[in-house]
From TrEMBL, chain B:
Family, as annotated: Belongs to the binding-protein-dependent transport system permease family.
Keywords: Cell membrane, Membrane, Transmembrane, Transmembrane helix, Transport
Domain ABC transmembrane type-1: 77-283
Coiled coil regions, renumbered to chain: none
Subcellular location: Cell membrane
One Gene Ontology CC term in the entry: plasma membrane
Ranges annotated as spanning the membrane: 12-37, 81-100, 112-132, 144-164, 186-208, 264-283
Protein name: Sugar ABC transporter permease
Naturally occurring in which organism (per UniProt): Paenibacillus wynnii
Entry membrane topology: Multi-pass membrane protein
Annotated PROSITE patterns: ABC_TM1 (PS50928)
């Protein structure tokens, strides 16, 4: 009996040492690989994971002598402050409205454009068109908003002039609470629709030509070919991009909204991300701002998770 | 016979619709861009009264002349060029080797590390903790804040990893390691030269990202000497600080400048976008390739 336990012990010890050696062995074998990846790991840990650790700030009073995590514990105080603030309803409404409008109008646009481009048989025309529609994507947001400002300005902009000439009177498209979201969404489509169509074009280029031939033999016209061959070929790409887009529902682009804001459109243009910036960076209310930011991130993540789960259930396509 | 001609009539209508729609799309996208160009060299009074539509009128280069004298724009330009090139070099230096490692099947930790990287796409600390970290690291108000934070973009990392994984035959590494080739050597002598496509595509993504970066400077930079072009552009285009202290001085010059403010704005848009417009035709052919590489399932 005793000898047996001894034997087992001996065996396990041996097993352990063998295992240890392999770990060491792979480390030794792959040391060059580790050297190549360690810089990237360090950067990601410092700039992505340390701020995650710093989320505690949302539950503490920020004390600049004690750093990110040294202040006094306040629990959900700052979250309550946000939910109770008179701005909460407006911020939520604006953020959700702008995001949903961008998704509902902006999401189908590149799909339609890709289907259209795919129908252009004349190579040179297709190329010219593609070159043109990709271009605005490379214009910076500042220039884009600057462009909107000079074109839409009611006194000196060309579009303002056209609207006046057409009898709409002096409409200030950028300074009106009614038109802000429209201008935001349409200009976004103008800028990114072409670029976003590339991925659908790539998916369309992988369609088996035999499918087109056989649909022709079956007597399908070109519209029917689009409906029954092209669109089904795009479905997986569409679902994945839709899930990703929904995961960002509250993540409405800070930069463009921030740059388009002015005193007149503020009631509809103040969104969570711009508010976080103003409260945190400009007014130095770090804990309050961190709490709002965390609330935003969590809602985003929940959205992503739910949409992904639904997508997996109904279409078998999911991110994870 | 009747059926055949009917079908071709339908096709004809379809083609016509395609042509009409395409022309519409082309004009909608191209005209505003063209308009900015002609407006930048036309008399601004004519522009604002809608008389400049197809060709520039009363051509003058006043806007460009003013820009040429403005010190802020040149400082911004210089800063942006430095941040863009140094930044992109650092991006590639960190991203490429890491992507190579993550593509090696014998690398034990690769699944775990991939998870560590990908998680950051869905969850982050948010603006304030990041801001305080940068402050703690004394990176605010230095040029390093443009270079090191986020110098590994996880999307680009995944694209590059997929490329290494699918386009570099496994046998190649086996053969090379048989001959005693180390990973360093294989990466530099074999993997990189075979991956020019993906290197140029993610290099381009990084380059454009740095050139257009506005947020970093807005949050982390206070000093005027460090402002990149985008911040200067914001001041001119949106805050209407059109050369108030620019060429000549005194109230009269100020009023004079105000009168031509719009022409200057159009010219500023052209000048700041020029580098991208120049490079654009040369890089355009890589776009589809880039997205194809990115869409390879990994």
């Amino acid at each position: 009996m005793i000898s047996q336990t001894k034997k087992i012990n001996k065996n396990t010890i041996q097993l352990k040492t063998v295992k240890k050696e392999t770990v060491l062995g792979t480390l030794k074998r792959d040391y060059q690989l580790w050297i190549m990846i360690v810089p990237a790991i360090i950067v990601i840990v410092i700039f992505n994971y340390i701020p995650m650790y710093g989320i505690q700030l949302a539950f503490r009073d920020y004390d600049f002598t004690k750093g990110l995590t040294g202040g006094e514990w306040r629990g959900l105080f700052y979250f309550k402050q946000f939910f109770d603030s008179y701005l909460f309803a407006d911020l939520m409404k604006n953020t959700i409205f702008i995001s949903l409008a961008t998704i509902i109008l902006g999401f189908p646009a590149p799909i339609i454009l890709a289907l259209l481009l795919n129908q252009v048989k004349w190579k040179r025309a297709k190329k010219t068109l593609q070159t043109t529609v990709y271009l605005p994507h490379f214009i910076s947001i500042v220039v884009m908003v600057g462009l909107l400002n000079v074109l839409l300005s009611p006194n000196t902009g060309i579009i303002g002039y056209i609207l006046t000439a057409a009898g709409f009177g002096d409409v200030n498209l950028l300074g009106s609470t009614k038109t802000f979201v429209g201008v935001y969404v349409l200009s976004d489509i103008w800028q990114h629709c072409g670029w976003n169509s590339i991925i659908y074009l790539a998916a369309l280029s992988t369609v088996d030509p035999q499918l087109y031939d056989s649909s022709k033999i079956d007597g399908a016209n070109r519209w029917q070919t689009i409906r029954h061959v092209d669109i089904p070929a795009l479905i997986p790409t569409i679902v994945i991009l839709f899930v990703l887009g929904m995961g960002n529902v509250l993540g409405t682009g800070f930069e463009k909204v921030f740059l388009m804001q002015n005193a007149l459109n503020l009631p509809v243009s103040e969104v969570i991300s711009t508010y976080v910036y103003k409260i945190g960076i400009i007014s130095n209310q770090f804990s309050y701002s961190a709490a709002i930011g965390l609330f935003n991130t969590v809602i985003n993540f929940v959205f992503l998770y739910v949409v992904n789960a639904l997508s997996r259930k109904y279409s078998d396509i999911s991110l994870w | 016979m009747v059926l055949l001609s009917k079908k071709s009539l339908g096709d004809l209508c379809f083609d016509l619709a395609v042509i009409v729609l395409c022309t519409f799309v082309f004009l909608i996208v191209a005209y505003p861009l063209y308009f900015v160009i002609i407006a930048s060299i036309s008399d601004s009074t004519l522009v604002s009264t809608g008389q400049v539509t197809l060709f520039p009128k009363n051509i003058s280069f006043f806007g460009y002349k003013e820009i040429f004298h403005d010190a802020r724009i040149w400082t911004g330009y210089k800063n942006t060029v430095v941040y863009t090139f140094v930044g992109t070099a650092v991006n590639l230096l960190f991203t490429l080797p890491a992507a190579y490692v993550l593509s090696r099947p014998e690398f034990r930790a690769r699944r775990f590390l991939m998870f560590v990287f990908v998680l950051t796409l869905f969850f982050n600390g948010g603006l304030i903790p990041t801001y305080l970290l940068m402050k703690g690291l004394h990176m605010t108000d230095t040029m390093w804040v443009f270079i090191f934070p986020f110098c590994v973009n996880v999307f680009n990392l995944i694209i590059t990893r997929s490329f290494f994984e699918h386009s570099i035959p496994r046998e190649l590494h086996e053969a090379a390691s048989m001959d005693g080739c180390s990973h360093f050597k294989f990466f530099i002598k074999v993997a990189l030269p075979l991956s020019k496509a993906v290197v140029s595509v993610i290099g381009l993504y990084y380059l454009v990202g740095h050139w257009n970066d506005f947020f970093t400077a807005l949050v982390y930079i206070r000093s005027n000497d460090l402002q990149p072009l985008q911040i200067v552009l914001r001041d001119i285009l949106l805050s209407n600080q059109v050369f108030s202290q620019g060429a000549g001085s005194g109230g009269a010059a100020g009023g004079y400048a105000q009168q031509y403010a719009d022409q200057i704005k159009y010219a500023v848009i052209i000048v700041s976008t020029l580098p991208i417009l120049i490079v654009y035709p040369f890089i355009q052919k890589y776009f589809e390739k880039g997205v194809m590489i990115g869409s390879v399932k990994g």
